Amino acid sequence: MKKNAAVLWTGGKDCALAFFKAQQEEYSITHLVTFAPENPDFKAHNLSLIKQQVTSVGIPHIILTVKSPMQNSYEDAISLLKTKYHIETLITGDIDEIENHDNWIEKCSQKSEMKVYNPLWKKNRTELLSTLLDHKFEVIFSLVKKPFFNQKWVGKVIDSTIIEELKKLNIDICGENGEYHTMVINAPFFKSQINIGSYTVTENEHYSYLHK
């Protein structure tokens, strides 16, 4: 019997690839879950595009508000997922520790004894990006960090040429340290491709990002 699971959803390549991999295993993915602050203004992950993705995936989407103190808020939210929505496992797109810190979702899941599955954990970065191409994911850069990238990268589609360019930079090529963020516009489990529509590229001191 498959286990009821939810994928922590940001709209980016890692959570989408985690969904794809978990779907092929012993998990029944019943929900997408997004943790968001009050009055969210996500620069990397546009909420209007996330709504399109959710419609295309075709399963319920839960947005849970988190606020300070963050650990308590996340613990309460995860407990709610278990008690109200009967979710047994949270699936994340996490690939590695960030600045040598413990995995945040695992830490916040201990209190409620929620299980956590990280299908991309410690995987080879090039293999992860290649898997996206092999299975016809379409992924664009939604936010890039200076000085590694300029604004021309925003909106570009990840392909084999882009992967080779990423390898030349002094970064984690999957952007695990925040060097860049992505949005998925098509995936094997999408019913239809996401329509980005018109957008502008906005810049500040640290980032360039897609703005709708």
CATH architecture of the largest domain: 3-Layer(aba) Sandwich
Q: CATH class of the largest domain, anyone?
A: Alpha Beta
Order of strands in the sheet with the most strands?
Answer: 3-2-1-4-5
Described by strand count, sense and barrel closure, the largest sheet is: 5 strands, parallel
Overall 3D shape: globular
Task: Tell me the radius of gyration.
Answer: 17 Å
Oligomerization state of this entry?
single chain
Let me know the number of strands.
9
Low-confidence stretches: none
Along the chain, the helix and strand elements come as EHEHEHEHEHEHEEE
GO molecular function: diphthine-ammonia ligase activity
Protein name: Diphthine--ammonia ligase
InterPro entries: Diphthami_syn_dom, Rossmann-like_a/b/a_fold
Keywords: Ligase
Keywords:
4-stranded antiparallel sheet; 5-stranded parallel sheet; 212 residues; Rossmann fold; alpha/beta; putative n-type atp pyrophosphatase, domain 2; single chain; 6 helices; 2 domains
Quick description:
This protein is α/β, with parallel strands linked by helices and 212 residues long. The protein has helices at 13-23, 47-57, 70-83, 104-109, 125-134, 160-167; strands spanning 3-8, 27-36, 61-65, 89-91, 115-117, 138-145, 180-186, 200-203, 207-211.
Describe this structure in words.
- This protein is α/β, with parallel strands linked by helices and 212 residues long.
- The chain is globular and about 45 Å long.
- The protein is 28% helix and 24% strand.
- The chain is built from six helices and nine strands.
- The protein folds into two domains: 3-117, HUPs (Rossmann fold, 3-Layer(aba) Sandwich); 125-211, putative n-type atp pyrophosphatase, domain 2 (Alpha-Beta Complex), CATH 3.90.1490.10.
- The strands form two sheets. Strands 3-2-1-4-5 form a five-stranded parallel sheet. A four-stranded antiparallel sheet has the order 7-6-9-8, covered by helices on one side.
- It is an enzyme of class 6 (ligase).
